[in-house]
TrEMBL record:
GO cellular component, one term: cytoplasm
Protein transport found in the keyword field: no
Keywords, sorted A to Z: Coenzyme A biosynthesis
One Pfam family recorded for the sequence: DFP
One BP term from GO: coenzyme A biosynthetic process
A GO molecular-function descriptor: phosphopantothenate--cysteine ligase activity
Domain (DNA/pantothenate metabolism flavoprotein C-terminal) ranges: 179-298
SUPFAM superfamilies: CoaB-like (SSF102645)
Pathway: Cofactor biosynthesis; coenzyme A biosynthesis; CoA from (R)-pantothenate: step 2/5
Originating organism: Populus trichocarpa (Western balsam poplar)
Name of the protein this chain belongs to: DNA/pantothenate metabolism flavoprotein C-terminal domain-containing protein
Alphabetical list of Gene3D superfamilies matching this protein: CoaB-like
UniProt xrefs under InterPro entries: CoaB-like_sf, DNA/pantothenate-metab_flavo_C
């Protein structure tokens, strides 16, 4: 039986994963990425001043694309603004975690929530002597964004890595997971990125722009191998893993989340429905379904604050149990 109908047999899945990575276009600057990861993890494992090792969470954010042409003009996209990942990153850092933020280029960034859509052009102005200054209504928001962001980077608590395609995303995720392996139970994966289910293998992809004169487009998409299994079994087996399940039909949401929890042996699956995702989520664990809601009495509250609080509590219990 193969991985598509529920029961996962190992050999075909391993072969699918191997073939995905073998045929993917090589990741640009892989060596540079691995070096950054190594330094970040080393720094947080032995922080200055003999502090105890920091917990490290990999937060994924934004949607992956599936290119249709090697010299890509067209692609299939997965919806995600990156809001969940960016906001969660801020709360994890506040809770004392170091965060590896793996995000889709151009999506929401941590500490930028209160800035206008085009911050560079809307927040700044040139004065007569050509100095650049912040425009009055944005002063506080810019100050907060810049100082919190710079503090997180300078303190060694935030490492940002970007992706666009499914190929880049999975290759970087694998490098992150393998770099985090030795952290054992101190490692967390918070997989909020919206990941493509189907892709066009690089070798069977058209090189040049597909021509519309050739008539209707007939294209075969292959299923993306389920990397969560590899993450859990091989890449970082001791890590605390949280994945997300997104549906538009609330009737099937919890059932699908429970299936994902069991199938990929996640510690938690956060179930959310597209239209209410900013108001509430349901956290599914082995024996509970916990509804987590935004505090509706506060205009600027978000669902990520109570969600991260819950996760940090559960992760602490997991770390304690693993030490016994
Ligand atoms: C999510 O469900 C995220 O919560 C959202 C966040 C993408 C809805 P925004 O970025 O939205 O704040 O606009 N992410 C996971 C989506 C996903 O693709 N899950 C897969 C699935 O549902 C499993 S990896 O099958």
């Amino acid at each position: 039986m193969d991985s598509r109908n529920g029961s996962v047999s190992e050999a075909p899945l391993d072969a699918e994963i191997e073939s995905f990575f073998d045929s993917a276009p090589p990741l640009k600057d892989r060596a540079g990425i691995i070096k950054k990861l190594k330094e970040f993890i080393e720094y947080n494992s032995t922080p200055p001043g003999k502090g105890s090792p920091r917990r490290v969470v990999c937060v994924t954010s934004g949607g992956t694309t599936v290119p249709l042409e090697q010299r890509c003009v067209r692609y299939i996209d997965n919806f995600s603004s990156g809001h969940r990942g960016a906001t969660s990153t801020e709360y994890f850092i506040k809770a004392g975690y170091a965060v590896i933020f793996l995000y889709r280029r151009g999506t929401f960034q941590p500490y930028c929530q209160s800035l206008p859509e085009d911050p560079l052009l809307e927040c700044f102005e040139c004065s007569d002597d050509s100095t650049i200054q912040v425009r009055q209504p944005h002063t506080e928001a810019v100050k907060r964004a810049v100082s919190d962001h710079h503090a997180a980077i300078a303190g060694g608590h935030l490492l940002k890595l970007s992706f666009t395609t499914i190929f880049e995303y999975l290759q970087i995720l694998q490098s992150i997971a393998m770099s985090m392996k030795d952290l054992g139970s101190l490692a967390v994966f918070y997989l909020a990125a919206a990941v493509s289910d189907f892709y066009v293998p690089w070798k069977s992809m058209a090189e040049h722009k597909i021509q519309s004169a050739s008539g209707p487009l007939d294209m075969r998409l292959v299923q993306v191998p389920k990397m969560l299994s590899a993450l859990k079994k091989e890449w970082a087996p001791m890590a605390f893993c949280i994945s997300f399940k997104l549906e538009t039909d609330s009737k099937i949401l919890l059932e699908k989340a429970e299936m994902a929890l069991k199938k990929y042996r996640m510690h938690m699956v956060v179930a959310n429905e597209l239209s209410t995702r900013k108001e509430e989520v349901t956290v599914v664990t082995g024996n509970e379904k916990i509804l987590v809601c935004r505090d509706k009495t506060q205009a600027d509250s978000d669902v990520e604050e109570p969600l991260i609080e819950l996760i940090v509590g559960r992760h602490s219990a997991y770390v304690k149990d693993s030490d016994l």
